[in-house]
Amino acid sequence: MNTSEQIQKPEQSPEKTVAGRLNMKNVLEFGGDSVAAKEATAAVLERNAIMSVLVVNDEESARNLCCEVAAESGMRAKGVATTEQALDVLDQQPIDMVITDIRVPQLGGFELLKRVKAEHPQTGVMMLTQYGTIDNAVEATRLGAADYITKPFRIEDLRGKITRLARNLELDHENRVVREQLRTRRGFGDLVGFSPKMEKVYRLI
């Protein structure tokens, strides 16, 4: 079985997992023992797993390289050769990040990007584009790609972009959890409100 055709699981300590790097104080400080707090905590713990990356590229060498770089960065990596295979994987298991070539068989990278953003909006997408095709990079960004990298690329550049995107995805997740707690948080008694003025009222009670 090729390297890219199986999920690569690097050894990783809990503090380096997605949830392990979240600031649990921020997650809990707004809710205490409330139902909202417990639900938010459960959402964080549900992500207490190594970030998963799906590489979509019909060039085996490039696919394997991207998988290896992701695995070396502490992530689980799986590679597929076509957009249909990618969509099947996305439907079967949670994927945090997709790295896809623009010129990938079947639907193509742009159409895959559209499908991912429509069906899995919380999944970050990085596009691989040929050197000199700036228009493609601009179009990818317009369609919702989180980042892009031009080929040929240096391994250090790819690793840096993968790491940065992973960090941004973690922060987005943490912000969603906190926003949900704020949305469902009740004040004292029947007081409900989250504005700065209401926060002052809560502190005075």
Question: How would you explain this protein's 3D organization?
Answer:
- This protein is an alpha/beta fold.
- The chain contains eight helices and five strands, in the order H-H-E-H-E-H-E-H-E-H-E-H-H.
- Mean pLDDT is 76; it is low at 11-33, 43-48 and 187-192.
Structure, briefly:
The chain has helices spanning 24-28, 35-46, 60-72, 83-92, 109-119, 134-142, 155-184, 196-204, and strands spanning 52-56, 76-80, 97-101, 124-130, 147-151. It has 205 residues and is an alpha/beta fold.
Number of separate helices: 8
Mean pLDDT figure:
76
Structural class call reads alpha/beta
The biggest beta sheet reads: 5 strands, parallel
The helix/strand order is: HHEHEHEHEHEHH
| Helix content bin | 40-55%
Keywords:
single chain; alpha/beta; five-stranded parallel β-sheet; 5 strands; 48% helix; globular
